[in-house]
Amino acid sequence: MAPIQATTTGGVSLVSTTIGPAYEFDGLTGRVVVGDAPEFQFRAGQNFSILAWIAPEQAETSFGVMSIVEKRKIGGITSALGYSLHLEYGKLACQLTTAPGFHFDVRDLASPKRLLANWQARKQLQGVNRFISPQPDLRDDHFHQVALTLERDSVTGGKLYVDGKVVLMFDPTKVRGSLLNSEPLMIGTHPDSTLHCAFKGKIGGVRLYRRALSPAEVNAAR
Q1: Are the CB atoms for 62 and 196 separated by under 8 Å?
Q2: Going by DSSP bridges, is the β-strand pair 129-132/91-97 parallel, antiparallel, or unpaired?
Q3: 147 closest CA partner among 222, 65, 59
Q4: 64-89: pLDDT as tens digits
Q5: Could you give the C-alpha distances from 198 to 8, 9, 36, 47, 87, in angstroms and in order?
């Protein structure tokens, strides 16, 4: 990926840590913003992965959410077009919301009802799809490697990793449409300023890939 320029505002600073340079967020006003770029834009069917190192602390936030990486266009709680990697009450989670359009696969062709339903919904956002790991709670102020990998045509192609281990496997085929939006990439902050979902702790080593990393590649990045 090409070098990127990040803008920091509020209560965030760049610090030296055991994993190298990382941003330390105050859990209130700290934010890192990176302008929109082709490397962050994932069209329909595009596989991708997100990796980061995080050392979150305990904090009270809206819905228990602490944002790690966000690239979403917010138009209400049910229409957040794009993708995010975040914590929910300390557990690793992600959200995926695709753009309107007619998306189908061979299973839809075998079911007239499914095909009709997809056609009728072609002008609607596909809803916020939340995938939340059952464990562990990462708010221990220690660094953990976290990752999201998506092979979008596979029913087992969605994986969340913590410290190299899969903590959740999910079916991403229902969100195979475009995730494109023109919003910037945000680290440690939520795009909806009316919510308090700021990250408290440290985030470093953020990487985005335009492919689904294998388990071996996720481990090799540790």
Answers
A1: yes
A2: antiparallel
A3: 222
A4: 999 999 999 986 545 689 999 999 99
A5: 14, 13, 20, 27, 11
Residues 104 and 218: their CA atoms lie apart, in Å, by 30
How many independent structural domains does the chain possess?
Answer: 1
pTM of the model: 0.86
Structural domain contains residue 115: yes
Tokens describing residue 11: 């209560």
The answer as to whether 150 is a domain residue is no
Residue 182 lies in a domain: yes
* Whole-number Cα distances in Å, 70 to 6, 80, 163, 186: 14, 10, 21, 5
Q: Which domain holds residue 140?
A: 6-42+55-144+171-205
Give strand pairing partners of 15.
22
Indicate whether 221 belongs to any domain.
no
Phi, psi of 158 (to 5 degrees): -100, 125
Query: What's the CA gap between 180 and 175, in Å, rounded?
Result: 13
- DSSP at 174: G
